[in-house]
Amino acid sequence: MKPIRHHMSKILKFTQFSVRDLFVAAAPTIALIAGVCLLAYWLVDPAPPRTVRLATGQENSAYAEFGKKYAAALAKHGVKVTLVPSAGSGENLKRLKAGEVDIAFVQSGSTNEEAAEREGLTSLGSLFVEPLWLFLRETKGKPPITQLTQLRGLKINFGAKGAGSSRLFRQVLELNGVEKGEVEHFSLANTPATVELLEGRIDGLVFTSAPEAPLIQMLLQTPGIKLFNFNQAEAYARKLPFLTHVVLPQGIVDLGRDIPAEDYKLIAPTATLVARDDLHPALVDLFVQAAANIHSGAGWFSQQGQFPSAKYTEIPVDAEAAKYYKSGPPLLQRYMTFWLANFFDRMWVVVVALGALILPLSKVVPPLYVWRIRSRVYRWYGQLRAVEQAVEEASDDTRMQVYEAQLVRLNEIEDLVNQVSIPLSFADGLYGLRSHIQFVRKRIQFLMGESAPAPDDEAVAV
Fold first, then answer.
1. What is the rounded CA–CA span in Å between residue 172 and residue 7?
2. Strand-strand pairing, 103-107 and 80-84
3. What is the pTM of this model?
4. What count of Cα atoms within 13 Å lies in the side-chain half-sphere of residue 82?
């Protein structure tokens, strides 16, 4: 059985397709295709960065709290969100324009469509309404403040420089005919301003924030602190189109204690997620999906599913974000991890590159494979030609020695040729080489017979 197996293994050796030769022949083509694909993959549509800078807001503000939620949401996908604290919407907008951050919370009304396009800014959608909260300290013996004109002569904190509340409240006062300087203006951050209000050193303070902000929650339940009721809220919304009229329902803060004890009319801009227009589309998708998870629930001023939205923003909405609001998350991201889905989503670049290269280059590989196999035979013809040349150039004095040496050389060549392994479909070339070796051997032997000295008469007679 062993001889039969040995014989069969030798037969298989010569009938197998030469995968190694095919790989070597195709290697340059494969390397070229891989190189072009990688170049296209990284240059045409680079991979999304793994870090992004998000400008939030002041400590204990809604922006700061929501920023933490976005950081946690994107961390699940391997993207690190660096939170950059700020005074508020105004400062965030400046940092976006300067390229100091990639994305930020910005209050509606902070800019306009032309300015946003000029600065290279794009909206990822509005997230929530953030009412203008005016908290005033109640004073015994004085009537409650019901009109903004009654603020003349009072000490009011408008918000830190760079906060959206300061700019908005100035516009509201101007609509009421209250000139700059008629109200003593302070520019403290939210937390120290709250301390000043509670200590009685200022008469009121202004926020623009979602009700989730800890300071808002605290002030709504603090005795002696009164929330201003914007009874003319609808008129403000008509005068300033970026504002909406919202109602803080009676008892929404604490039903048991009936806080607040009545409905409060408020005016509210919307908070918008604004990014630079060079933010990678894949990160846009991630932020919009995170926004849907964080802001889609029902709230004090919004219905279930009302936010996030492509509405309520004067900044042009990013194309990727608009696609999400229309069709939901990308198909692949519904079933795959973010990075895997992003990889396949970008594979169209590779497909285009492959389509442009594979068809023409595939015609080169078969000839290269054939040439490589046949070269194992053809290279010995050079050795065979060298033997013939040495025989032809042999002088009369050294002819026999040359013939003998070349016969030895032919034997060595034949031994090496017998060790050559090629697929059976190319065996005709190998057998042709062997026959040509035999042909050259016979020719040398014939020449040796002609060159041998003829025997003389005496030797014949003997």
1. 100
2. unpaired
3. 0.65
4. 9
